[in-house]
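Technical annex B. To support the medicinal chemistry partners, we prepared a structural model of the target in complex with adenosine-5'-triphosphate, based solely on the information shown next.
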Amino acid sequence: QSTTSTQNSGLYDYLLPMLKEDTGVRVNVVAVGTGQAIKNAMRCDGDLLLVHSQPAEEAFVADGYGAYRRDLMYNDYVIIGPEADPANLAGASNVTEAMQQIKQSGAKFASRGDDSGTHKKERSLWQAAAIDSDAGSGQWYLETGSGMGATLNTGVSLSAYVLTDRATWIKFANKQDAIILFEGNPALFNQYGVTPVNADKCPNVNREAAEIVTQWLASDIGQSAIGAYQVDGEPLFFPNAN
Amino acid sequence: MDALSEAFRLIITLDEDLFEILWLSIRVSLSALTIAAVIGLPLGTYLAITRFPGRKFCILLLNVLMGMPPVVVGLMVYLLLSRAGPLGWMGLLYSPTAMIIAQAVLITPIIAALSNQVIESLHQEYSDTFYSMGVTGGRAVAAYLVDARYALTTCILAGFGRAIAEVGAVIIVGGNIDHLTRVMTTAIALETSKGNLTLALSLGAVLLALSLLVNALVIGVREYAQKRQYA
Amino acid sequence: MDALSEAFRLIITLDEDLFEILWLSIRVSLSALTIAAVIGLPLGTYLAITRFPGRKFCILLLNVLMGMPPVVVGLMVYLLLSRAGPLGWMGLLYSPTAMIIAQAVLITPIIAALSNQVIESLHQEYSDTFYSMGVTGGRAVAAYLVDARYALTTCILAGFGRAIAEVGAVIIVGGNIDHLTRVMTTAIALETSKGNLTLALSLGAVLLALSLLVNALVIGVREYAQKRQYA
Amino acid sequence: MLKSANMPNPLLPICISGLRLIRGDRAVLAGVNLTIDEPGITVLMGPNGAGKSLLLRSLHGLITPDQGRINLGSLTVADSRTEQAMVFQQPVLLRRTVLQNLAFAAPKTAKTDRQRLIQALESVNLLDRADQPARMLSGGEQQRLALVRALLGEPALLILDEATASLDPASVLLIESLVKTQNVQGTKIILVSHDQGQARRLADEIVFISNGQVAEQSPADRFFTEPRTPEAKAYLAGEIVV
Amino acid sequence: MLKSANMPNPLLPICISGLRLIRGDRAVLAGVNLTIDEPGITVLMGPNGAGKSLLLRSLHGLITPDQGRINLGSLTVADSRTEQAMVFQQPVLLRRTVLQNLAFAAPKTAKTDRQRLIQALESVNLLDRADQPARMLSGGEQQRLALVRALLGEPALLILDEATASLDPASVLLIESLVKTQNVQGTKIILVSHDQGQARRLADEIVFISNGQVAEQSPADRFFTEPRTPEAKAYLAGEIVV
Ligand SMILES: Nc1ncnc2c1ncn2[C@@H]1O[C@H](COP(=O)(O)OP(=O)(O)OP(=O)(O)O)[C@@H](O)[C@H]1O
Ligand SMILES: Nc1ncnc2c1ncn2[C@@H]1O[C@H](COP(=O)(O)OP(=O)(O)OP(=O)(O)O)[C@@H](O)[C@H]1O
Ligand SMILES: [Mg+2]
Ligand SMILES: [Mg+2]
C-alpha cells in the first residue's frame, strides 16, 4: 500500500496496470494528504510512502520509520485565480511579489490549511513575503482544511486565488472561470519522493513488494512511463529519480 | 485515554477556537433541526392520517430520501447556491446559511419518515373517533402532534444526532473555512487528514459530550413533564 | 439533467466499474445492517420492556450514540484495526470487513433507539397482559419483535439509509481503494474532489435509485403481508 | 309511541338496502335490508358477532360496504356525517385531561364556553374528575365521558354501541335518562344492547340481527312478548345460537 | 354453600390489610381491609370509580400499593403470580390469529398440543374463528377469547374484571357455567360485575366497594335481601351515589 495526493491527477490509473504487468505486484492506493499519509505509515498502516514534503520524509527516515528515501519525480506549483485577475498576478515578476499583490488587492486566497505538502509550501511563501496570513483567517485568507480538489472547488467558487500543484489543476474539472495566473517560477518546484516503510519498525510490512515497486518506479521503464503521462497534451510529472 | 484527557484539557482551558467551532456546530444544527421539524413533523403526520392516491409513494420517497448521501445533498445545494446556479445571486455559498440549508434538506425526510411511523400507530387508535367527531386537516394534524409529543422527541433527537454528526454535506457547501464555516465534524475530518488522530478523537469526545448534554436535557424535560401529567 | 442522463448512460451501458462499486456498497451496507439489526432490535426491545436502575441512562446513551459522528466511529475502528492496534494482527484495515464493522458500530444505536421507541408504545398496550401471563425475558422480546414487525421496518430502513449514504467512516477504515474498498459514497467524494461534479451527481442518482429499489421492495413486501393478514 | 319533536328529523327515514360486507372469506353482513322511520329509540339486539357493530359503523361512514346503499333522509352517509355522533364499544379518549377531551370535541364557536363544558361534565357526574388524565378514568367513567362528548355536537342521529355495558346501575339509569331526553329533543337514537332490561326500558323499536342479516324488526312491546323468529326466541331465552 | 374441591386452595385465605393507593391528590384506595377465605365465588360490586379494578390489579401484582400488605395463603403477591390469572375489563389480544393467541398463552409443554387448544376454542364457541386475526373479533368474541386464554394455565385464582359486560345472553350463561365448573375444580374466583342477575346467579359472597373502601362483605343471599350499608342499598336501587 502506498499513500499520496497524486491520485487526483490520474497518474495511478495510468501507472499501476503497467507496474502490475511488469512485476506482478498489485498496489492498493490510499490517497490522503501528506500529513496523514506519514502518520498512517508511522502506525505501520502502509508499505510504501509516495508524498511530496522532503523535510518531513527525511525526518520519517531519520526516526527509523522509513528504510530510505528516493527522489522520484517533480512537477510544479501554480497559482490560479479568476480570469479578471484583480491582483494583477500576471504582472508579478516573482512569487514574493505575487503573494504581496494578492494581500494588497483585497482578493481572497483559499488555502488548504491541512498541513499537506502544498500547504507547507504555501506557508513558506507567505513567510518569504513577510505576510501574516493567519491574521486574516476567515476574512481574506480562507483555510479550507481540505484536500486539493475540495480547496479548488471552494477557491474557484469564491473567485479566490489558490496555490495548487499543476497536475491536480490540469485534471480538475470544475474550473469555471479560473485560469493559471502565475507559473514557472523556480520557487514553485515540487519534489515527490518514495520511501519504503522500515521493516525493522513494522514487522508486518510487505517488504519485498515495496522494494520491487520502488525499484520499478526508479527504473528507466518506470521513469519514462511517468514522463510519458500526459493530460490534455501536457505532461504532469517530470521524472528525476536519483 | 489520551484523547479523553486532551478533550478535557481543551474544555477546561476554555480554548477559544474550540468554542467558536462548537458554537457554530450548535447554531447550524439547531437551526437546521428547527426548519426540519417545522416542515417534517406536520408532513409526516399528514401522510400518516390522510388517504389519497400517491400517499404510499410519498412515504416511500421519504424513506428513500432518508438514505440520501450527505455528499449528494451537499452537491445539490452547492450547485443551487454556486455563482452559476439559480440562487447564486444571494451569495450564500460557503456561509453558515448554506450549511443550515444543506442540513435541513438532509434531516427533513428523516424527521418526516420517523414521525410518520409514530403517528401511524396513534392513528390506528384515534382514527375512528376523529372521523366521528369530524376532526380533519390541520386540526387533526395538530392534535396528533400534541398527543404524540413524547414519542416524537425520539424522532427529533434522531434528527439532531444526524445533524450534529454530519460532515459530508456541510464540508461541501461550507468549505470548512477556518473562523467562518468550520464546525466540529469538519474540524475532526481536518485533524484526521493531518494525522492528528488524538486531537481528532478528543474533538469527537467533546462533540459526544455536547450530544449527551442535549439528549439528557430533552429526555429529562420529557420525563419530568410526563411524570407531572400522570402522577 | 446532465447528471441524470449520465447516470442513465452508466447504468444501461452496464459500466463494469460502476457495478463493482455498487455491489460492494450493497454488500457492505447489508452486512452491517444485518449485524446492527441482530444486536439493535433485541436491545431496543429489551430496554423498552424491562425496568432496572440505569435503564433510562442506557436509552439516553443510545440516543447520544445515534449522534456519533461517522468520522469518530471511523477513527476508533481504525485505531482498533490498525497494525499497531489491539486487533491489528487480523490485518483487517482497508478491507470491506473493516467497513462493515465501522458501519455496524454506527447503525446499531440507531436501530436500537428507534426500535425502542416503537416497542415502547406497543408495550403500553401489552404490558399488563404479558405480566399476567408471566411472559418475560426472551419470550417477551421475541413476541414484541414479531407483533411490531411492520412498524420495525421503518427503523430498519432508517438504518439502511444511514449505512448506504455514509462516507465518513468507510473512507477512514476502507481507504477508498479502487477495486477493493471503493464504494458509491467514497467514489462520489472522490469525483467531487476531482471537480467532476456531474459525474459525482450521477453516481448519487444511481445510489438513490438503489435506495429506491430497496425501499420499494421492503415496503411492498410489508404491504402485501399486511394485506394478506387483515384481508 | 312517537316522541314529540319540533321538526321532523332530517336524517329519517334511514334506508339500508342490500348491504354486503365481506371480511376474510365470510360475508359478515350478508345483504342487510332495513328501513327505520321510527323517530324514537331503535335498539339493535343479536348474538355476539352477528354484525351489529359493523352495521352501525357502515351507517356512520367508518366502513365502506362492498355492496348496497345507505340513505339518511335525502342525504348520503358522507353528507350526513356532521349530523351524526357515535359512542364506541371501547371508548377512545385523547391523551389529555377530561376537560380537554371535552373542549377538543366542542364545536369551534363554543370552545371558549367553559361553562357549557362544566355543565356537560356535571350531567354525567364527572365534574370532580375534570383535570384528571382521561385515560386514567375507570372503565365506567370513560364510557360516560365518551357519551357526553358525543352529545356536545347536538347530533341529529346518535349511535350508541353498548355504551352502558360497564356502568353501575345508577349510571345506567342516568345515561338512559340522558338518552331519552336527547331523543325527546329530536335526536334519533340507535343503540346496541345485550341488556334486555335496558331494551325494555328504552326501545320503541327492536331490530334483531343474526348472522349478518336482519332477522326481525318489531315494535318493542311486541318483540319481547311474542318474538316471531326462532333466533330471537332463542336469544331472549339465553340459548346458544351460532 | 362451600364448593367441593379435592385440596384446599393454596392461595386462601386472601388477606388485604390497610391498602392505600394515591393517584393524583386522591386516595383512590383508602385503606382497604379485606379477608377472603371463602373458596367459592366472590363478587365485587360497587359504583364506577369505586376502586374495584385498582383493588384487583393490586391483588394481581400489576400495581404496587403505596401502603398496606397483601397475602395469599402463605404467599406474597409476587410469589403467587404464576398461580393467578386475570381477565381485564378491556381485553388485550396479540396482533395474531385467534389460535396463535391461545398457543402463545399455553404453557410451554402444551405448546404442541393443538388438540387442547382446539377444545378450548370450542368451549367458548370460537372454533370457526380460529384463523382470523384476533383483533378483528367482535367485542363479545374478544372477551370470550380472553377468558379461555386465562383458563389455559389452570390458575388457582382467577380474577375477572367485568368479563361478561358485552356478551350476549347465551354467551353470558356459557361463561358463567365455565366459571362455575372451574370453581368446582378448585379455582378460587373473584369477579367484578354490575349485573345483579349475574351476581345472584354466581356469587357465594359479595364484597361491596365504595369510595376506595370495603363498605360491606356479606354472603350473597343476605346482601341482596338485606344490605346493611346505605351505599349498598342505594347502589342496588340504582340511586346515584358519588
Ligand atoms: N377484518 C375482519 N376479518 C374477519 N372477520 C371480521 C373482520 N372484522 C369483523 N369480522 C367479524 O365480523 C363479525 C361481526 O362483527 P361485529 O363487531 O359487527 O359483531 P357484533 O354484532 O357487534 O358483536 P358483539 O355483540 O360481540 O359486539 C364478527 O364475527 C367478527 O369476527
Ligand atoms: N393515574 C390516576 N390518576 C388519577 N386518578 C386515577 C388514576 N388511576 C385511577 N384513578 C381513579 O381511581 C378511581 C378508581 O378506579 P377503578 O378503575 O378502580 O374504578 P372501578 O371501581 O373499577 O370502576 P368501574 O366500575 O367503572 O370499572 C377512578 O375514579 C379513577 O379515576
Ligand atoms: Mg359489537
Ligand atoms: Mg373497573
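Notes passed to the chemistry partners:
The mean pLDDT of chain E is 87.
The domain at 14-88+157-236 of chain E is CATH 3.40.50.300 (Rossmann fold).
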